[in-house]
Write a structure and sequence with these properties.
Number of strands: 4
Strand content: 35-45%
CATH topology: Translation Initiation Factor IF3
Mean pLDDT: 89
Number of domains: 1
CATH class: Alpha Beta
CATH architecture: 2-Layer Sandwich
Largest sheet: 4 strands, mixed
Low-confidence stretches: none
Helix content: 25-40%
Radius of gyration: 17 Å
Strand order of the largest sheet: 1-3-4-2
Length: about 100
């Protein structure tokens, strides 16, 4: 499966268009991560617990979008974009979407 944020795949021709596909996941903060984040706010630095949480969320959302594209017989997803939003206190949604196509 080709995943790209470009409008086309260089060297490939779009032969079928399946429409928009998406994937999302909602993740809540972990109390332990919140405590560590509070301490990091005092001294500065990367919040590694949150970095890992967001990376896992991106992978899960991307896997869900890819599965939806495969179910349509697509072999590529173009114009891929990520978005985040708060859905409740301490919880956020990571959403990914793109256009499913078949290229050759």
């Amino acid at each position: 499966m080709i995943i790209t944020n470009l409008e086309s795949v260089p060297g490939k021709r779009i032969v079928e268009h399946y429409g928009v596909v998406n994937g999302s996941t909602v993740r809540a903060k972990h109390v332990g991560r919140d405590i560590m984040a509070s301490l990091k706010n005092i001294v500065g630095g990367e919040l590694k617990g949150y970095t890992e949480l967001l990376q896992e969320a991106r992978e899960e959302a991307l896997n869900r979008m890819t599965a939806q594209a495969r179910s349509l017989n697509a072999n590529a997803v173009l114009n891929v974009r990520f978005a985040t939003s708060a859905v409740a206190q301490g919880a956020a949604e990571l959403y990914v979407y793109g256009t499913a196509v078949r290229v050759e």
